[in-house]
Specification:
By secondary structure, this protein is mainly alpha-helical. It has one domain. The chain is 74% helix and 0% strand. Helix 2 runs antiparallel to helix 3 and helix 3 runs parallel beside helix 4. The longest helix is centred in the N-terminal third of the chain and has 24 residues. It starts with a helix and ends with a helix.
Length: 99
């Protein structure tokens, strides 16, 4: 991985922080694929959830210029994003579900 988030966070732009979260999210998806191919399905679900959580935190950082909440509830991260911006992820999710 390119970034050491804990050491570099103070020196990273919001875009770089987003790229970090994207990178670790993609890493988790690659791990999920490997687990799926080996038949370890419980870990597939877990690493997919981790991937979604990380990209959600990346979006939070990108759109709010703040560090993401230290929680694991994806829906609460989206709520915090909505509260801190005028960006409404709920409308985007609703539109994607309806199509």
């Amino acid at each position: 991985m390119r970034f050491n988030y804990a050491k570099e966070v103070d020196y990273m732009t919001n875009k770089e922080k987003f790229e970090y979260w994207l990178e670790v999210s993609e890493y988790d998806l690659d791990t999920a694929r490997a687990m799926y191919e080996s038949g370890r399905y419980l870990y597939v679900a877990f690493t997919c959830q981790q991937s979604i959580e990380k990209i959600t935190k990346g979006l939070f950082t990108l759109f709010t210029s703040k560090e993401p909440p230290r929680i694991h509830n994806i829906w609460q991260i989206f709520r915090a994003l909505k509260k801190n911006t005028n960006w409404n992820p709920f409308l985007i999710l609703k539109a994607s579900i309806q199509n």
